[in-house]
Backbone:
């Protein structure tokens, strides 16, 4: 494979009733949460996975779960918190810049991923801020030794973005447009009304 190949990784939980989107399911019910997860992942795959400018990977949890499109390589996320799992996936990928996105971002477009890879031409990292204080995308250039930016990040909190930016303070970081990730019933209702991008 080309050493400069771009890698897009979609982080997802295997869509199973009662297994994913737990906070959302508490607010809107298991069936609505399952349908949202399934539909959003399917739309993201249609939108992002067929672009020849990058190679798309699925990073799935739990490990060894589900039937996935044969055209896409599947990676197990492994164990640990979100940061540990992202670092594990990044270390296992072939050389080249990597962009990771979550699978609960209905507003993501191909242009957003392309903008992230463009930003990595002049920056060592790129982040897509989420409206809740987290982030919907992280990209790393990976030209030198991989340095883990995920230590001591308070995941699933309003501090995730600032904690990660603190870990990247000595590197050039680009920020993309803010987007919403759908974590709970309030997010879901705003998305249903078309209020979130």
Residues:
């Amino acid at each position: 494979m080309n050493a400069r190949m771009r890698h897009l990784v979609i982080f997802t939980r295997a869509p199973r009733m009662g297994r994913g989107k737990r906070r959302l399911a508490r607010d809107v019910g298991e069936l609505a949460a399952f349908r949202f997860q399934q539909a959003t992942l399917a739309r993201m795959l249609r939108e992002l996975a067929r672009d020849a400018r990058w190679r798309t990977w699925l990073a799935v949890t739990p490990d060894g779960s589900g039937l996935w499109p044969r055209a896409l390589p599947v990676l197990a996320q492994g164990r640990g918190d979100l940061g540990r799992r992202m670092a594990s996936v990044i270390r296992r990928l072939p050389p080249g810049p990597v962009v990771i996105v979550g699978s609960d971002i209905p507003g993501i477009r191909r242009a957003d991923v392309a903008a992230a890879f463009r930003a990595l031409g002049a920056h060592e990292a790129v982040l897509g801020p989420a409206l809740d204080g987290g982030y919907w995308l992280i990209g790393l250039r990976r030209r030198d030794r991989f340095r883990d930016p995920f230590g001591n990040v308070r995941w699933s909190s309003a501090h995730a973005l600032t904690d990660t930016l603190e870990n990247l303070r000595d590197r050039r970081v680009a920020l993309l447009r803010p987007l919403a990730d759908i974590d709970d019933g309030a997010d879901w209702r705003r998305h249903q009304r078309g209020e979130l991008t």
Observations:
- The mean pLDDT is 87.
- The chain has one domain: 7-191.
